[in-house]
């Protein structure tokens, strides 16, 4: 299975377009290779008055919540599951890698304090968006890099941000993050909420989550609570 995942990721990377001038590749751009064709209409979600919603998947949701929950303007970054087709998935279900769900955070934020574009920029610096179905040693579709957009404006912002990050050459390889319409979110079991804050001494948190959080703090110390 790791070989198949690697082959799939390689194929996606190869499909990402680039601007070529005089035979020289200069700037990878956003490509439809990032976009999974919608199979359902966008599902609306209600945010508290004055707030908006961002739905992001980028590996372990313990780490994602720990990072984005620190950002000024973020009210909450709840862990859960998105992108699958079955109803009421459990953590055990998702770990089978057969449900289509990805570990996800639902970010409720104040756009007057932090913009959607800001969150996207942080996202693309916080994870490795050039690997589709893995983050570090965590492998499988449940750890895939995917952004679920809630409206056309968010979709356009994601496409713009991907093009900007590709053009900046932050990564040697193009971004393969999926861009997918939001079709629902299931909150994870209660013990996942604030897992890193409550269990910092567990081996996984020490060796996987803590370095990600430290890197995020170093990058965005002036944007954190």
Q: What are the key terms here?
A:
single chain; 34% helix; 10 strands; Peptide Methionine Sulfoxide Reductase, Chain A; disordered N terminus; six-stranded mixed beta sheet; two-stranded antiparallel ribbon; alpha+beta; 21% strand; 225 residues
Listing every helix as H and every strand as E from the N terminus to the C terminus, the arrangement reads HEEEHEHEHEEEHEEHH
Terminal Cα separation, in Å? 41 Å
CATH architecture: 2-Layer Sandwich
What structural class should be given to the helix and strand makeup?
A: alpha+beta
CATH homology superfamily: Peptide methionine sulphoxide reductase MsrA
Write down the CATH class: Alpha Beta
Silhouette: globular
Uncertain stretches:
1-28
Give me the number of helical elements.
7
Strand order of the largest sheet: 9-8-3-5-4-10
Radius of gyration: 17 Å
- Please give the largest β-sheet: 6 strands, mixed
Q: Could you say what the CATH topology is called?
A: Peptide Methionine Sulfoxide Reductase, Chain A
State the helical fraction: 25-40%
Mean of pLDDT: 87
Description:
By secondary structure, the chain is of the alpha+beta class. It has one domain (2-223): Peptide Methionine Sulfoxide Reductase, Chain A (2-Layer Sandwich), CATH 3.30.1060.10. The protein has seven helices and ten strands. The chain has helices at residues 2-15, 61-68, 91-95, 116-126, 152-168, 195-198, 203-220, and strands at residues 18-21, 24-28, 52-58, 74-82, 102-109, 134-135, 138-139, 145-149, 178-181, 186-187. Strands 9-8-3-5-4-10 form a six-stranded mixed sheet, covered by helices on one side. A two-stranded antiparallel sheet has the order 1-2. Helix 5 links the parallel strand 8 (145-149) and strand 9. Helix 4 (116-126) packs across helix 5. The longest helix is centred in the last third of the chain and has 18 residues, at 203-220. The protein starts with a helix and ends in a 5-residue tail after the last helix. Residues 1-28 have low confidence and may be disordered.
């Amino acid at each position: 299975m790791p070989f198949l995942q690697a082959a799939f990721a390689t194929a996606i990377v190869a499909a990402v377009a680039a601007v070529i001038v005089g035979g020289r590749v200069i700037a990878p751009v956003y490509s439809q290779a990032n976009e999974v064709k919608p199979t359902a209409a966008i599902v609306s979600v209600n945010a508290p008055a004055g707030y908006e919603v961002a739905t992001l998947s980028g590996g372990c949701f313990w780490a994602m919540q720990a990072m984005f929950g620190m950002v000024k303007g973020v009210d909450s970054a709840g862990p859960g599951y998105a992108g699958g087709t079955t109803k009421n998935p459990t953590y055990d279900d998702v770990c089978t890698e057969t449900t289509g769900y990805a570990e996800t955070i639902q970010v409720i934020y104040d756009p007057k304090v932090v913009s959607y574009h800001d969150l996207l920029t942080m996202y693309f610096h916080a994870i490795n968006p050039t690997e589709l179905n893995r983050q570090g040693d965590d492998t499988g579709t449940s750890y895939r890099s995917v952004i679920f957009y809630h409206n056309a404006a968010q979709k356009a912002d994601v496409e713009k941000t991907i093009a900007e990050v590709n053009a900046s050459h932050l990564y040697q390889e193009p971004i393969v993050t999926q861009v997918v319409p939001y079709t629902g979110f299931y909150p994870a079991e209660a013990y996942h909420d604030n897992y890193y804050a409550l269990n910092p001494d567990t081996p996984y948190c020490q060796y996987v989550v803590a370095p990600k959080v430290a890197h995020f703090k170093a990058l965005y110390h002036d944007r954190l609570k």
